[in-house]
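All the exercises in this workshop are built on plain-text protein records. An example says more than a description, so a record of this kind follows:
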Amino acid sequence: MKQFDTSLYFITDSGTYEEAEFLARIEAALCGGVTILQLREKNKTTREYISLAEKVHKLTKKHGVPLIIDDRVDVALAVDAEGVHLGAEDMTVAQARKILGEDKIIGATAKTVPWALDVYRQGADYLGVGAIYPTTTKVKTVLTSVDTLRDICKAVPIPVNAIGGLNKNNIDVLAGVPIAGICAVSAIMKADDPKIAAEMLKARAVELKII
């Protein structure tokens, strides 16, 4: 059975960072207690994505953290990543499972209970649900209410993570919701010190009994 911990799920954003700084920020976040890491690159060529993924994978393996590749099953296969995360416009979970096999982690985005049930039945191992708050990392942000998040948690037996604009100052809205963890992008990636940011976010989530 696959073992993984989504309590502090870090999603990268290379943005305007030079590669060396980007990798340094990732390692700092890993040192700060990130439990699973998703490499998300929307604008790189396949070769560029694979090259960066290989470097990131060295870091995640060093820290014993699973690497999840956003969108791209081919990139995940090329670098032998631990899994892939799929959105509504990507390959279906069922198709990805046929290619990746049973041992890889497959996550899926879900915004409604029917959607969550569908991807669970296709074989998703965990769900990302949001956006809870507006986010600057995507052009189009569709907000998901905390009530819907709670309903999805109750509807499926797999880990459900909240995502979207979350930081240590606003995650209190998640208190009492039976999520498995929180996803963070900017709160860690853009912090002055990603290690401290990850530590503080995790500590606040534990304090609120969210994770």
Remarks:
- DSSP finds eight helices and eight strands in the chain.
- The mean pLDDT is 96.
- The longest helix spans residues 46-62.
- The helical segments are 19-31, 46-62, 73-78, 93-100, 113-122, 146-155, 186-189, 194-207.
